[in-house]
Write a structure and sequence with these properties.
about 100 residues, three-stranded parallel sheet, 3 strands
Length: about 100
């Protein structure tokens, strides 16, 4: 964005959370699914890679049957309230 000289307010930036890998390419329990820990740490890692302070939308990529829905919703609400994302949504969730 900086090299293209596009103002941030002219863009809609999104990211998604579900699977993740550690710095060595391995996947472990805390870097996957939709636990509060993974949602918050995953979004922070994404922001760092994007070199942004917030995204417009963070998506919960796939429904996680192993993590309570209330935990997922509260974590996404938390990242919105903290200003890390303006909105949260879902993708690949059944109705």
């Amino acid at each position: 964005m900086q090299e293209k000289n596009v103002p941030r307010e002219d863009l809609v930036v999104t990211t998604k959370i579900f699977f993740g890998a550690d710095n060595y390419g391995g996947v472990h329990a805390n870097s996957r699914f939709s636990s509060r820990k993974h949602i918050i740490e995953g979004l922070r890692a994404s922001l760092k890679r994007l070199q942004l302070s917030y995204v417009d939308v963070v998506y919960s990529h796939r429904f996680d049957h192993l993590t309570p829905l209330e935990e997922q919703c509260r974590a996404y609400d938390w990242v919105v309230k903290k200003g890390l994302a303006l909105y949260w949504g879902t993708s690949e969730w059944s109705t």
